Amino acid sequence: KRLVRALCLDDFEPMARAHLPRPIFGYVAGAAERNASLEDNHRAFCEWGFVPRILRDVSRRDPAATLFGRRWSAPFGIAPMGLAALVAYRGDIALAEAAKAANIPFVLSGSSLIRLEEVIAANPEAWFQAYLPGAAERIEKLIDRVAAAGFGTLLVTVDTAVLPSRENNVRNGFSTPLRPSLRLAWDGLIKPRWLIGTWFRTLARYGMPHFENSFAERGVPILARNVLRDFTARDHLNWEHLALIRRRWKGRLLVKGILHPEDARLAREHGADAVIVSNHGGRQLDGSVSPLRVLPAVVAASGDMPVLFDGGVRRGTDVLKAMALGARFVFVGRPMLYAAAVGGAEGVGHAIALLRGELDRDLALLGIDTPASLGRDSVFRLADGLL
Ligand code: FNR
């Protein structure tokens, strides 16, 4: 059907733009301020090239990858993205189910609108990403709820001390809390497939969407003013809070949103099992460098702690460049949500298959069998000019 027109991950973006109301598309596509970090995430990949090897038997190649002793069908997963259920009907479930079917990891966002207990029922191996509430006892309650639901892996996102300046959201008429307006109503009306297929279906099943997973107690409606208060009351969070989480959380603990090598070392010291090098897809501090540029230094500072990566991964070659520079695993954000908008779980499955297919071909053309066997000598920084 329509999905076959998507030949690569980038193709989902214009399809989602046509399908989604402008404020919602803008929320997903956008970044912060001048989009400097968003652009750098893309540019950083372009600054590396491959030095392939030839005439090696690659008939037994396999893009599968192992992380924490678990074998996945590819070295990439789906990054946590908030408000997915506004973008696609039961968006988090669509992502969770597609990831499960394809045997790749899925991370549920703490800013999601479907209860985490419902999501883990759809994918018992889902990971959970937490935005920490400000008060310690609420952090503990949240952790206990996530553990009770059966999640084994917790990501704590640490690059959001305050809300960023996402001017594009304001310009596109999108805000948290969501404010009903004539403009919003109009933007919805002119996208009837989304209006009926996502918005009305959601209202019929769940009523007005709530932030269901930021807080232990109960959901907060997306229209409520106290959403903002809860999101801004975290600016005092520090390493002590991570230590507190480490004492409370028995599962695997990942720290997401690290760029400085010293912070990777501190995360390890405080008991993190891995870090995710990320600038939040360019959505937090605009001008923060692409994670690819700091990846080798972070890996060097991390010892035997796995370093994961996200930001701008769109191609099999991007996955392999990040891995050649030391990433153990990568995560893909926006394209997966666009795919969910356009085709639900089937769309996400198509996106995953496209990326995995690229990886398989890239491995063969690079002359290697597995992504893990990539070395630093497989890539070359173009600015260096000559080998
Ligand atoms: C995000 N991201 C994010 N990260 C997080 O830790 N918690 C969250 O709730 C969200 N929400 C969110 C919503 C949307 C719409 C996007 C696009 C992103 C950041 C995300 O996990 C990841 O770091 C980036 O999206 C990776 O960059 P790419 O792949 O989108 O370029």
Question: What distinguishing features does this structure have?
Answer:
387 residues; alpha/beta; two-stranded antiparallel sheet; 16 helices; 14 strands; 44% helix; 13% strand; globular; binds ligand FNR; Alpha-hydoxy_acid_DH_FMN; FMN_hydac_DH_AS; Alpha-hydroxy-acid oxidizing protein; oxidoreductase activity
Task: Produce a short descriptive summary.
The protein is built from 16 helices and 14 strands. The chain has helices at residues 12-19, 22-29, 36-46, 84-87, 91-102, 116-122, 136-149, 167-171, 182-189, 192-206, 226-232, 239-248, 261-269, 291-301, 316-324, 334-366, and strands spanning 48-50, 65-67, 70-72, 76-78, 107-108, 127-130, 153-157, 210-211, 220-221, 252-258, 274-277, 307-310, 329-332, 379-381. It starts with 11 loop residues before the first helix and ends in a 6-residue tail after the last strand.
Please describe the topology of this protein.
Elements: H1 12-19, H2 22-29, H3 36-46, E1 48-50, E2 65-67, E3 70-72, E4 76-78, H4 84-87, H5 91-102, E5 107-108, H6 116-122, E6 127-130, H7 136-149, E7 153-157, H8 167-171, H9 182-189, H10 192-206, E8 210-211, E9 220-221, H11 226-232, H12 239-248, E10 252-258, H13 261-269, E11 274-277, H14 291-301, E12 307-310, H15 316-324, E13 329-332, H16 334-366, E14 379-381
Parallel strand pairs: 4-13, 5-6, 6-7, 7-10, 10-11, 11-12, 12-13
Antiparallel strand pairs: 1-14, 2-3, 8-9
The structure holds ligand FNR.
